[in-house]
Write a structure and sequence with these properties.
single chain, three-stranded antiparallel β-sheet, binds pyridoxal-5'-phosphate, alpha/beta
Length: 375
Protein backbone atom coordinates (compact mmCIF):
# COMPACT_ATOMS: atom_id res chain seq x y z
CA UNK A 1 0.00 0.00 0.00
CA UNK A 2 1.20 3.52 -0.84
CA UNK A 3 0.71 6.49 1.49
CA UNK A 4 -0.22 8.66 -1.50
CA UNK A 5 -0.30 6.70 -4.77
CA UNK A 6 0.79 9.13 -7.50
CA UNK A 7 1.49 6.38 -10.04
CA UNK A 8 -2.14 5.24 -9.88
CA UNK A 9 -3.17 8.79 -10.73
CA UNK A 10 -0.70 8.86 -13.63
CA UNK A 11 -2.06 5.57 -14.94
CA UNK A 12 -5.59 7.01 -14.90
CA UNK A 13 -4.57 10.16 -16.83
CA UNK A 14 -1.68 8.65 -18.81
CA UNK A 15 -2.63 9.37 -22.41
CA UNK A 16 -3.52 13.05 -21.81
CA UNK A 17 -0.44 13.65 -19.66
CA UNK A 18 1.86 12.00 -22.20
CA UNK A 19 0.33 14.14 -24.96
CA UNK A 20 0.69 17.34 -22.91
CA UNK A 21 4.34 16.60 -22.11
CA UNK A 22 5.06 15.71 -25.72
CA UNK A 23 3.49 18.96 -26.95
CA UNK A 24 5.77 21.02 -24.70
CA UNK A 25 8.91 19.12 -25.62
CA UNK A 26 8.10 19.35 -29.34
CA UNK A 27 7.05 23.01 -29.10
CA UNK A 28 10.35 24.29 -27.76
CA UNK A 29 8.98 26.94 -25.36
CA UNK A 30 10.35 25.45 -22.16
CA UNK A 31 10.33 28.67 -20.13
CA UNK A 32 7.13 30.76 -19.89
CA UNK A 33 5.49 28.90 -22.78
CA UNK A 34 1.82 29.53 -23.56
CA UNK A 35 0.72 26.75 -21.17
CA UNK A 36 1.91 28.86 -18.21
CA UNK A 37 -0.37 31.81 -19.03
CA UNK A 38 -3.25 29.44 -19.90
CA UNK A 39 -2.88 27.63 -16.60
CA UNK A 40 -2.83 30.94 -14.70
CA UNK A 41 -6.14 31.93 -16.32
CA UNK A 42 -7.64 28.51 -15.50
CA UNK A 43 -6.43 28.59 -11.89
CA UNK A 44 -7.68 32.11 -11.17
CA UNK A 45 -11.07 31.19 -12.68
CA UNK A 46 -11.19 28.01 -10.59
CA UNK A 47 -10.26 29.72 -7.32
CA UNK A 48 -12.23 32.91 -7.98
CA UNK A 49 -9.49 35.55 -7.80
CA UNK A 50 -8.64 38.25 -10.30
CA UNK A 51 -4.98 37.25 -10.59
CA UNK A 52 -2.89 34.08 -10.48
CA UNK A 53 0.88 34.22 -10.82
CA UNK A 54 2.60 30.84 -10.94
CA UNK A 55 6.12 30.37 -9.57
CA UNK A 56 8.76 27.75 -8.80
CA UNK A 57 7.36 26.32 -5.53
CA UNK A 58 5.03 26.99 -2.62
CA UNK A 59 7.81 28.43 -0.45
CA UNK A 60 8.73 31.03 -3.07
CA UNK A 61 5.02 31.83 -3.42
CA UNK A 62 4.98 32.87 0.25
CA UNK A 63 8.23 34.80 -0.15
CA UNK A 64 6.85 36.65 -3.18
CA UNK A 65 3.81 37.74 -1.16
CA UNK A 66 5.91 39.01 1.75
CA UNK A 67 8.22 40.87 -0.65
CA UNK A 68 5.26 42.48 -2.44
CA UNK A 69 4.13 43.80 0.95
CA UNK A 70 7.63 44.91 1.90
CA UNK A 71 7.71 42.80 5.08
CA UNK A 72 11.08 42.91 6.83
CA UNK A 73 13.02 43.86 9.93
CA UNK A 74 10.91 45.02 12.85
CA UNK A 75 7.73 43.39 11.53
CA UNK A 76 5.85 40.70 13.47
CA UNK A 77 4.23 37.97 11.38
CA UNK A 78 1.84 35.59 13.15
CA UNK A 79 2.27 31.95 12.14
CA UNK A 80 0.60 28.80 13.50
CA UNK A 81 2.93 26.78 15.73
CA UNK A 82 1.71 23.57 14.06
CA UNK A 83 2.56 23.66 10.33
CA UNK A 84 5.26 22.83 7.77
CA UNK A 85 8.50 24.77 8.32
CA UNK A 86 8.08 26.94 5.18
CA UNK A 87 5.19 28.92 6.67
CA UNK A 88 7.59 30.41 9.26
CA UNK A 89 10.89 30.07 7.38
CA UNK A 90 9.93 32.66 4.76
CA UNK A 91 9.18 35.21 7.47
CA UNK A 92 12.62 34.87 9.01
CA UNK A 93 14.25 34.87 5.56
CA UNK A 94 12.78 38.34 4.93
CA UNK A 95 14.26 39.52 8.23
CA UNK A 96 10.88 39.75 10.00
CA UNK A 97 10.02 37.86 13.19
CA UNK A 98 7.65 34.89 13.23
CA UNK A 99 5.38 34.87 16.29
CA UNK A 100 4.04 31.39 16.94
CA UNK A 101 0.32 31.15 17.58
CA UNK A 102 -1.47 28.12 19.03
CA UNK A 103 -3.88 26.02 16.98
CA UNK A 104 -7.34 24.59 17.52
CA UNK A 105 -7.16 20.92 18.55
CA UNK A 106 -10.21 19.90 16.52
CA UNK A 107 -9.31 21.52 13.18
CA UNK A 108 -5.48 21.78 13.56
CA UNK A 109 -5.75 25.37 12.27
CA UNK A 110 -4.70 28.70 13.82
CA UNK A 111 -6.74 29.57 16.93
CA UNK A 112 -8.26 33.08 16.63
CA UNK A 113 -8.22 33.58 20.43
CA UNK A 114 -4.53 32.69 20.73
CA UNK A 115 -3.88 34.92 17.72
CA UNK A 116 -5.48 37.88 19.44
CA UNK A 117 -3.49 37.18 22.64
CA UNK A 118 -0.26 37.17 20.62
CA UNK A 119 -1.10 40.39 18.74
CA UNK A 120 -1.91 42.15 22.04
CA UNK A 121 1.38 41.01 23.57
CA UNK A 122 3.40 42.27 20.57
CA UNK A 123 1.64 45.64 20.77
CA UNK A 124 2.20 45.90 24.54
CA UNK A 125 5.90 45.09 24.21
CA UNK A 126 6.16 47.69 21.43
CA UNK A 127 9.38 46.39 19.88
CA UNK A 128 7.77 45.11 16.67
CA UNK A 129 4.96 46.19 14.37
CA UNK A 130 2.23 43.55 13.83
CA UNK A 131 1.80 43.23 10.05
CA UNK A 132 0.63 39.86 8.72
CA UNK A 133 -1.31 36.74 9.76
CA UNK A 134 -0.16 33.59 7.95
CA UNK A 135 -3.25 31.37 7.94
CA UNK A 136 -2.43 27.79 6.93
CA UNK A 137 -5.13 25.49 5.51
CA UNK A 138 -3.60 22.51 7.27
CA UNK A 139 -4.22 19.01 5.93
CA UNK A 140 -6.65 20.44 3.33
CA UNK A 141 -9.11 22.21 5.65
CA UNK A 142 -9.50 26.00 5.22
CA UNK A 143 -8.65 28.02 8.33
CA UNK A 144 -11.39 29.89 10.22
CA UNK A 145 -11.41 32.90 7.88
CA UNK A 146 -14.57 34.45 9.34
CA UNK A 147 -12.91 34.91 12.73
CA UNK A 148 -9.47 35.67 11.25
CA UNK A 149 -10.78 38.47 9.05
CA UNK A 150 -12.46 39.99 12.08
CA UNK A 151 -9.16 39.98 14.02
CA UNK A 152 -7.21 41.25 10.99
CA UNK A 153 -9.61 44.16 10.50
CA UNK A 154 -9.58 45.13 14.16
CA UNK A 155 -5.77 45.27 14.32
CA UNK A 156 -5.09 46.43 10.75
CA UNK A 157 -3.26 43.27 9.65
CA UNK A 158 -3.00 41.56 6.26
CA UNK A 159 -3.93 37.88 5.81
CA UNK A 160 -1.57 35.63 3.85
CA UNK A 161 -3.35 32.34 3.16
CA UNK A 162 -0.82 29.49 2.95
CA UNK A 163 -2.96 27.14 0.88
CA UNK A 164 -0.11 24.76 0.03
CA UNK A 165 -2.21 21.88 1.40
CA UNK A 166 -5.55 23.57 0.94
CA UNK A 167 -6.16 23.85 -2.83
CA UNK A 168 -9.65 22.47 -3.53
CA UNK A 169 -11.06 23.12 -0.07
CA UNK A 170 -13.91 25.56 0.44
CA UNK A 171 -16.12 27.42 2.92
CA UNK A 172 -19.70 27.64 1.67
CA UNK A 173 -19.34 28.70 -1.98
CA UNK A 174 -15.88 30.20 -1.68
CA UNK A 175 -12.78 28.25 -2.64
CA UNK A 176 -9.46 28.02 -0.81
CA UNK A 177 -6.71 30.32 -2.13
CA UNK A 178 -9.23 33.16 -2.31
CA UNK A 179 -9.42 33.91 1.44
CA UNK A 180 -6.16 35.81 1.91
CA UNK A 181 -5.35 39.35 0.84
CA UNK A 182 -2.76 37.27 -0.95
CA UNK A 183 -3.05 33.46 -1.05
CA UNK A 184 -0.52 30.87 -2.14
CA UNK A 185 -0.36 27.20 -3.01
CA UNK A 186 2.19 24.50 -3.81
CA UNK A 187 2.20 21.98 -6.65
CA UNK A 188 4.70 19.66 -4.92
CA UNK A 189 3.72 16.18 -6.17
CA UNK A 190 2.00 15.01 -2.97
CA UNK A 191 -0.15 18.11 -2.48
CA UNK A 192 -3.85 17.99 -3.47
CA UNK A 193 -3.00 19.44 -6.91
CA UNK A 194 0.54 18.29 -7.65
CA UNK A 195 2.83 18.39 -10.67
CA UNK A 196 5.89 16.23 -11.50
CA UNK A 197 8.45 18.34 -9.69
CA UNK A 198 8.28 21.66 -7.88
CA UNK A 199 5.73 24.35 -8.59
CA UNK A 200 3.63 26.98 -6.85
CA UNK A 201 1.22 29.86 -7.35
CA UNK A 202 0.14 33.17 -5.83
CA UNK A 203 -3.45 34.47 -5.95
CA UNK A 204 -4.81 37.95 -5.29
CA UNK A 205 -7.49 40.43 -6.37
CA UNK A 206 -5.10 43.36 -5.94
CA UNK A 207 -3.68 44.69 -9.25
CA UNK A 208 -0.69 46.43 -7.70
CA UNK A 209 0.48 43.41 -5.68
CA UNK A 210 -0.09 41.10 -8.66
CA UNK A 211 2.10 43.30 -10.86
CA UNK A 212 4.83 43.42 -8.21
CA UNK A 213 4.77 39.61 -7.83
CA UNK A 214 4.89 39.07 -11.61
CA UNK A 215 8.00 41.25 -11.65
CA UNK A 216 9.57 39.75 -8.51
CA UNK A 217 9.35 36.18 -9.86
CA UNK A 218 11.54 37.17 -12.83
CA UNK A 219 14.44 38.99 -11.19
CA UNK A 220 12.36 42.09 -10.48
CA UNK A 221 12.03 42.83 -14.18
CA UNK A 222 10.61 46.13 -15.37
CA UNK A 223 8.72 46.85 -18.58
CA UNK A 224 11.99 46.24 -20.42
CA UNK A 225 13.39 42.76 -19.66
CA UNK A 226 16.88 44.17 -19.12
CA UNK A 227 15.82 47.01 -16.88
CA UNK A 228 15.38 45.47 -13.45
CA UNK A 229 13.35 47.68 -11.15
CA UNK A 230 13.55 45.69 -7.89
CA UNK A 231 15.51 42.83 -6.35
CA UNK A 232 13.60 39.63 -7.03
CA UNK A 233 13.95 35.88 -7.52
CA UNK A 234 14.31 33.43 -10.38
CA UNK A 235 11.05 31.66 -9.62
CA UNK A 236 9.15 30.65 -12.75
CA UNK A 237 6.94 27.58 -13.19
CA UNK A 238 8.33 25.33 -15.95
CA UNK A 239 6.14 25.06 -19.06
CA UNK A 240 6.29 21.25 -18.65
CA UNK A 241 4.85 21.45 -15.15
CA UNK A 242 2.14 23.88 -16.32
CA UNK A 243 1.11 21.42 -19.05
CA UNK A 244 0.90 18.54 -16.54
CA UNK A 245 -1.15 20.73 -14.19
CA UNK A 246 -3.59 21.65 -16.98
CA UNK A 247 -4.43 17.96 -17.40
CA UNK A 248 -4.65 17.35 -13.66
CA UNK A 249 -6.88 20.40 -13.10
CA UNK A 250 -9.39 18.86 -15.52
CA UNK A 251 -9.57 15.73 -13.35
CA UNK A 252 -9.42 17.62 -10.07
CA UNK A 253 -13.13 17.95 -9.19
CA UNK A 254 -13.70 14.22 -9.73
CA UNK A 255 -10.67 13.47 -7.55
CA UNK A 256 -11.94 15.85 -4.88
CA UNK A 257 -15.21 13.90 -4.75
CA UNK A 258 -13.31 10.62 -4.51
CA UNK A 259 -11.00 11.72 -1.73
CA UNK A 260 -13.98 13.03 0.26
CA UNK A 261 -15.68 9.64 -0.11
CA UNK A 262 -12.49 8.03 1.23
CA UNK A 263 -12.33 10.40 4.21
CA UNK A 264 -15.98 9.74 5.07
CA UNK A 265 -15.34 5.99 4.94
CA UNK A 266 -12.42 6.39 7.36
CA UNK A 267 -14.43 8.53 9.78
CA UNK A 268 -17.41 6.16 9.72
CA UNK A 269 -15.24 3.25 10.81
CA UNK A 270 -12.84 5.05 13.14
CA UNK A 271 -14.88 7.74 14.92
CA UNK A 272 -15.89 5.53 17.84
CA UNK A 273 -12.27 4.36 18.41
CA UNK A 274 -9.98 7.38 17.94
CA UNK A 275 -10.26 11.15 17.54
CA UNK A 276 -11.04 11.70 13.84
CA UNK A 277 -10.58 14.99 11.93
CA UNK A 278 -13.37 17.56 12.21
CA UNK A 279 -14.82 19.37 9.19
CA UNK A 280 -16.97 22.27 10.47
CA UNK A 281 -20.37 22.82 8.90
CA UNK A 282 -20.12 24.62 5.54
CA UNK A 283 -16.44 23.64 5.14
CA UNK A 284 -14.98 21.20 2.66
CA UNK A 285 -11.50 19.68 2.93
CA UNK A 286 -9.29 18.62 0.06
CA UNK A 287 -7.76 15.99 2.40
CA UNK A 288 -4.06 16.58 1.84
CA UNK A 289 -3.87 14.39 4.97
CA UNK A 290 -6.30 12.30 7.00
CA UNK A 291 -5.02 12.74 10.54
CA UNK A 292 -6.23 10.95 13.66
CA UNK A 293 -5.28 11.70 17.27
CA UNK A 294 -4.22 9.09 19.83
CA UNK A 295 -4.19 9.52 23.62
CA UNK A 296 -0.40 9.97 23.98
CA UNK A 297 2.97 9.53 22.29
CA UNK A 298 3.56 5.93 23.35
CA UNK A 299 0.15 4.89 22.06
CA UNK A 300 0.77 6.78 18.80
CA UNK A 301 4.23 5.35 18.25
CA UNK A 302 3.09 1.80 19.09
CA UNK A 303 0.25 2.10 16.56
CA UNK A 304 2.57 3.42 13.85
CA UNK A 305 4.96 0.52 14.49
CA UNK A 306 2.12 -2.02 14.38
CA UNK A 307 0.82 -0.57 11.09
CA UNK A 308 4.33 -0.66 9.62
CA UNK A 309 4.69 -4.33 10.56
CA UNK A 310 1.64 -5.21 8.43
CA UNK A 311 2.80 -3.03 5.49
CA UNK A 312 0.61 0.03 6.12
CA UNK A 313 2.48 3.34 5.78
CA UNK A 314 1.60 6.24 8.06
CA UNK A 315 3.27 9.59 8.81
CA UNK A 316 3.66 11.96 11.73
CA UNK A 317 2.77 15.45 10.48
CA UNK A 318 4.32 17.11 12.43
CA UNK A 319 6.66 15.75 15.10
CA UNK A 320 8.04 19.16 16.19
CA UNK A 321 6.22 22.49 16.63
CA UNK A 322 7.70 25.64 15.08
CA UNK A 323 8.76 27.12 18.44
CA UNK A 324 10.96 24.05 19.08
CA UNK A 325 12.74 24.12 15.71
CA UNK A 326 16.51 24.36 16.08
CA UNK A 327 16.64 27.16 13.50
CA UNK A 328 14.36 29.30 15.70
CA UNK A 329 16.37 28.73 18.90
CA UNK A 330 17.48 32.35 19.04
CA UNK A 331 13.90 33.73 19.07
CA UNK A 332 12.49 34.96 22.39
CA UNK A 333 10.38 32.53 24.39
CA UNK A 334 7.26 34.46 23.44
CA UNK A 335 4.60 32.34 25.17
CA UNK A 336 4.33 29.41 27.57
CA UNK A 337 4.51 26.91 24.76
CA UNK A 338 4.11 23.94 27.11
CA UNK A 339 0.45 24.95 27.34
CA UNK A 340 0.00 25.05 23.57
CA UNK A 341 -2.27 22.44 21.99
CA UNK A 342 0.32 22.42 19.17
CA UNK A 343 2.90 20.93 21.54
CA UNK A 344 0.57 18.08 22.49
CA UNK A 345 -0.58 17.44 18.90
CA UNK A 346 3.00 16.72 17.84
CA UNK A 347 2.91 13.75 20.25
CA UNK A 348 -0.55 12.46 19.37
CA UNK A 349 -1.20 12.85 15.61
CA UNK A 350 -0.92 10.14 12.98
CA UNK A 351 -1.73 10.59 9.28
CA UNK A 352 -3.15 7.56 7.45
CA UNK A 353 -2.90 6.71 3.72
CA UNK A 354 -5.34 8.80 1.67
CA UNK A 355 -5.60 9.88 -1.98
CA UNK A 356 -8.32 9.96 -4.64
CA UNK A 357 -7.42 6.49 -5.94
CA UNK A 358 -7.39 4.59 -2.62
CA UNK A 359 -9.67 1.52 -2.71
CA UNK A 360 -12.44 0.85 -0.21
CA UNK A 361 -10.73 -2.48 0.57
CA UNK A 362 -7.53 -0.61 1.47
CA UNK A 363 -9.44 1.73 3.77
CA UNK A 364 -11.09 -1.29 5.43
CA UNK A 365 -7.68 -2.89 5.91
CA UNK A 366 -6.21 0.26 7.50
CA UNK A 367 -9.22 0.70 9.80
CA UNK A 368 -9.10 -2.92 10.97
CA UNK A 369 -5.38 -2.60 11.68
CA UNK A 370 -5.89 0.67 13.60
CA UNK A 371 -8.73 -0.74 15.71
CA UNK A 372 -6.89 -4.02 16.40
CA UNK A 373 -3.71 -2.24 17.51
CA UNK A 374 -5.00 0.42 19.89
CA UNK A 375 -3.44 0.04 23.31
C1 LIG B 1 4.43 22.05 1.24
C2 LIG B 1 4.15 23.27 2.02
C3 LIG B 1 4.78 24.49 1.76
C4 LIG B 1 5.91 24.64 0.77
O1 LIG B 1 5.65 24.21 -0.51
P1 LIG B 1 6.90 23.81 -1.47
O2 LIG B 1 6.27 23.76 -2.81
O3 LIG B 1 7.39 22.48 -1.00
O4 LIG B 1 7.91 24.88 -1.35
C5 LIG B 1 4.42 25.60 2.49
N1 LIG B 1 3.48 25.52 3.45
C6 LIG B 1 2.86 24.37 3.75
C7 LIG B 1 1.83 24.36 4.83
C8 LIG B 1 3.18 23.19 3.07
O5 LIG B 1 2.58 22.06 3.38
Amino acid sequence: MQFRDLVKQYNALQSQINQAIHDVVAGGQYIMGQQVAELERQLSAYVGTKHCITCANGTDALTLALKAWGIGKGDAVFVPDFTFFSSAEVVALEGATPVFVDVDTATFNIDPQSLEDCIRRVKEEGAMVPRVIVAVDLFGLPANYGALRDVADRYGLLILEDGAQGFGGSIDDRRACSFGDISTTSFFPAKPLGCYGDGGAVFTDNDEWAAAIASLRIHGKGADKYDNVRIGLNSRLDTLQAAVLQVKLQAFDRELEQVNVAAEAYSRQLASHVVTPVVPSGYRSSWAQYTIQLPDISCRNALQQALRSVGIPSMVYYPKPMHAQTAFRSLDQFADYSRYAATRLCDTVLSLPIHPYIEQSEIDQVCRAVIDNLV
